[in-house]
Amino acid sequence: MPNKLKALLAKKEPAIGSWIGFADPFSVEIMADVGFDWLMVDTEHCPIGPESLCTILISMKGGVSSPVVRLPSNSPDYFKLALDLGAEGVVVPMINSGADAALAVRHCRYPPVGARGFSPIRASKYFQDLENYVREADGEIALVVQIETPEAVANINEILAMDGIDAIFIGPSDLASFMGCRGRTDAPEVQQAVSAIIEAAVAKGMPYGLPTWSAAECFDFIRRGALLPTLGGDLHYLSSGARSEVARVRGMLNRPAPRAS
Q1: How many whole angstroms separate alpha carbon 231 and alpha carbon 234?
Q2: Suppose 59 and one of 7, 25, 94, 127 were both cysteines; which one would form an S-S bond, judging by CB atoms 3.0 to 4.6 Å apart?
Q3: What is the rounded distance in angstroms from the CA atom of residue 221 to the CA atom of residue 228?
């Protein structure tokens, strides 16, 4: 079960990702074959339950992108579900301390390293590849923890020191909200906190990523050492693409957009 995402991280090559918020298999197949190295399925903030997650992961099979699931929380049940269904990695939100990070490692890895429950149904090809999966799972599954609170920033060095973590992912929106700058990720104090996280990760040699919304922004963070940036997402591409094109046509017609009642 070689993990393309972890292989890129091991070579220190940027892995360009994006977000999945739709459970529709058509849209998932499209995103999985566009050319992203990995896709983050957002079960934290999007209405994606167990059955939808199964559909998404099956729809990604045959695509070029590694499936990674952002969990709703640092709970063992969510790890078991995502990993047994075949996710190649998980992103764990609200990791605020070394103790939180240690718990994530415990939930993600099999004994004796951790305490992950054992029944990798789809992940082991319905137990037809069980021996290989058992041998490789702990080393191939990517564990990414999310840094998104001032508490996490204060404890960043102890989080980065936790053995078993493969990368961190910065959450600027939550960080801004907790810092009293809701909706303003460009606020100077928020950018300063993001820079502090980046500096700590680079100094430790820990791969990091964060959301970006344009090719220029993505490339800028890659130049700053980001190995796990995401670029847009399915919801973003649908909304921005449709708005842009209809606005262009309405501009040619000199007709304003209709207002919702």
Answers
A1: 10
A2: 25
A3: 10
The set of catalytic residues is 45
**pLDDT range class, residue 121, cuts 50, 70, 90:** very high
| Continuous segment of H or E residues that includes residue 66 | strand 66-70
Q: How far apart, in Å, are the Cα atoms of 114 and each of 52, 97, 104, 107, 110?
A: 27, 18, 9, 6, 5
Whether 247 maps to a domain, the answer reads no
Q: How many domains does the chain have?
A: 1
- Residue 123 belongs to some domain of the structure: yes
253 within domain boundaries: no
Question: Is it the case that residue 1 has pLDDT exceeding 90?
Answer: no
Question: In terms of residue numbers, what domain contains 62?
Answer: 4-233
Q: How far apart are CA 247 and CA 239, in angstroms?
A: 12
Between CA 157 and CA 206 the distance in angstroms is 11
Average pLDDT of the segment spanning 84-110: 98
Single-letter amino acid, residue 106:
R
Task: List the Cα angle 119/100/147 in 5-degree steps.
Answer: 105
Quick: pLDDT tens for 6-55.
999 999 999 999 999 999 999 999 999 999 999 999 999 999 999 999 99
Would the pTM of this model clear 0.90, i.e. be above it? yes
180: Cβ contacts below 8 Å, ≥ 6 apart: none
Q: Would residue 181 count as lying in a domain?
A: yes
With residue 250 as reference, give the H or E element that holds it: helix 234-253
What is the chain's mean pLDDT, rounded?
A: 96
The residue with tokens 């964060």 is 210
Q: Which residues lie below 8 Å from residue 23, measured CB to CB, with a gap of 6+?
A: 47, 48, 52, 53, 55, 56
DSSP-assigned beta bridge partners for residue 91 = 70, 144
